[in-house]
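Title: Comparing notes on inverse folding

I've been comparing how different people in this forum approach sequence design from structure. To keep things fair, I'm posting one structure and asking everyone to reply with a full sequence. Here's the target:
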């Protein structure tokens, strides 16, 4: 094994007195009512749909026994306030759309902002952007609240990517890399389960925890030809964790709990699924398509279905991952080779489940991934920080419904393989730990040297792939944590993993991805083609606390000679 750095000491399991499962109990919800609404367009521009979406405060009731919680969310044309989760944006392959995200948030944050985190104060920008910084008479004028929305997994031009320094403030201040108000989404890629969320430098963990996240489904003929479950049988499922403070049912707001000072990793002890705490979804005795998304700040979920009294649960059939369909259907269950579905933060899984043989029964969605998470082999299987149960499905009584498809015979339109013999460069990228301003910090090392110095967010760009070329990145994890690594702009494929990166990838990740789990002490090799746009993008850890404190680096796609 590679030598591991010491685990950061500042991993915090938040405690929610009065809000746990044995306090509140499961809440019954018709699955049809749990499906997020579809975002309405605000008209058309240049021949395509135009969406004007506001980021606003709102209130949200997570459980009938709870009082409403102040949240931040995305507001569509028909909404009275910010919605959590945000309504689902739906696009179509090769049909451009324009989206404008407008910052109408309060000028004070929902949580305390630790100004030791890079990107939260004027001095973090003034050296690199002196002319831009001159607009402020002093450091007190720098806005506390900043937001920018990233369409995660969408291939877009740099100016529309929602990069960390493309933020705006409620009073109209634009970040130093801000380019345009209205984003151009060209949608030139395969159908996929995407999502949109905040990405502001130094505030991402707080803004997403406040509620700024929603699904983005890209549709197209590839999936429609398969005849998959649709309508109210297609259900996006957003898994998150939260911690609360207050007294449920006392008539005062039950607020989110989050540390005042920066912590390297934070977990909540309340399961929140599609915005609902401890949900028990009532489903028909039929077949469903679930689009799973791990939208937590830093918690891994190792998902299983468990039947009553230890019986055999229905098999989960995974048909897709982050950016489209797998090459082959992967059955998941106790009788299968793949026993569970492990999702790191930001990862997605497209799954078919048939409840037709389970009328009148209740199935539990369980989780045994530790927090913090190191690797499957290092897990104690406790579920970490009190989240061994995430949700339930109660199957209504009635006659079994005919399935839409037979998942065992599906021929999936899996992705074209990126050929390793077309690779023009292999880059060694290190994942490291350290400290900055007295805070536990993780770094990305783009030089590949050891011992690794690690580069900071504001250091010069070192990685410049050439447009249209194929590269292999070797991600070497020298830390004691697993890290979900996300690359903007591109889709990539996992070539290998393990101590030397030569073990075969897991069957559940053999498709096009934008986020990959890199376990403690291992190397993951990915291959990608930089074939869409030139310009500046980023790659980073999607543990949001890590991302906010230096585990993120810019890269630039160029037409000239690569670096």
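Reply #1:
Here's my take.
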């Amino acid at each position: 094994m590679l030598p591991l750095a010491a685990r950061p000491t500042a991993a915090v399991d938040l405690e929610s007195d009065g809000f746990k499962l044995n306090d509140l109990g499961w809440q019954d919800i018709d699955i049809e009512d749990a499906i997020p609404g579809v975002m309405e367009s605000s008209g058309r521009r240049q021949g395509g749909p135009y969406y004007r979406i506001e980021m606003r405060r709102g209130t949200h009731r997570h459980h009938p026994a709870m009082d409403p919680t102040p949240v931040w969310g995305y507001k569509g044309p028909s909404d009275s306030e910010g919605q959590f989760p945000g309504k689902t944006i739906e696009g179509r392959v090769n049909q451009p759309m324009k989206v404008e995200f407008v910052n109408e948030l309060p000028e004070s944050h929902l949580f305390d902002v630790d100004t030791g985190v890079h990107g939260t104060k004027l001095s973090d920008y003034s050296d690199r952007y002196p002319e831009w910084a001159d607009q402020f008479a002093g450091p007190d004028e720098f806005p506390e609240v900043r937001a920018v929305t990233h369409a995660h997994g969408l291939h877009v031009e740099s100016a529309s990517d929602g990069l960390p320094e493309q933020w705006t403030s409620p009073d109209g201040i634009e970040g130093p890399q801000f380019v345009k108000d209205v984003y151009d989404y060209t949608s030139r890629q395969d159908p996929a389960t995407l999502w949109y969320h905040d990405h502001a430098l130094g505030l991402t963990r707080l803004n997403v925890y406040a509620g700024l996240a929603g699904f983005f489904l890209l549709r197209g003929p590839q999936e429609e030809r398969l005849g998959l479950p649709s309508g109210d049988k297609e259900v996006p499922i957003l898994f998150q964790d939260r911690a609360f403070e207050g007294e449920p049912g006392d008539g005062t707001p039950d607020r989110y709990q989050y540390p005042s000072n920066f912590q390297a990793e934070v977990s909540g002890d309340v399961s929140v699924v599609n915005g609902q705490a401890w949900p028990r979804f009532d489903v028909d005795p039929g077949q469903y398509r679930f689009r799973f998304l791990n939208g937590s700040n830093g918690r891994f979920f190792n998902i299983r279905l468990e039947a009553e009294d230890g019986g055999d649960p229905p098999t989960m059939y995974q048909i897709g991952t982050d950016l489209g369909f797998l090459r082959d259907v992967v059955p998941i269950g106790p009788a299968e080779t793949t026993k569970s579905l492990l999702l790191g933060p930001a990862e997605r899984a497209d799954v078919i489940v048939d409840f037709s043989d389970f009328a009148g029964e209740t199935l539990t969605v369980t989780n045994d991934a530790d927090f913090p998470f190191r690797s499957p082999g290092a897990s104690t299987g406790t579920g970490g920080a009190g989240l061994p149960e995430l949700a339930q499905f109660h199957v209504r009584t009635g006659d079994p419904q005919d399935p839409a498809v037979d998942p065992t015979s599906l021929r999936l339109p899996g992705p074209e393989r990126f050929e390793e013999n077309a690779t023009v460069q292999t880059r060694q990228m290190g994942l490291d730990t350290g400290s900055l301003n007295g805070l536990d910090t993780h770094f990305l090392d783009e030089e590949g040297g050891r011992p690794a110095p690690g580069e900071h967010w504001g250091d010069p760009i070192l990685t410049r792939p050439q447009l249209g070329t194929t590269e292999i990145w070797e991600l070497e994890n020298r830390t004691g944590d697993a890290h979900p690594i996300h690359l903007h702009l591109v889709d990539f494929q996992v070539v290998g993993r393990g101590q030397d990166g030569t073990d075969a990838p897991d069957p559940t990740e053999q498709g096009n991805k934008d986020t990959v789990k890199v376990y403690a002490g291992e190397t993951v090799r990915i291959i990608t083609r930089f074939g869409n746009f030139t310009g500046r993008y980023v790659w980073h850890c999607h543990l949001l606390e890590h991302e906010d404190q230096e585990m993120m680096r810019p890269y630039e796609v160029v037409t000239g000679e690569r670096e």
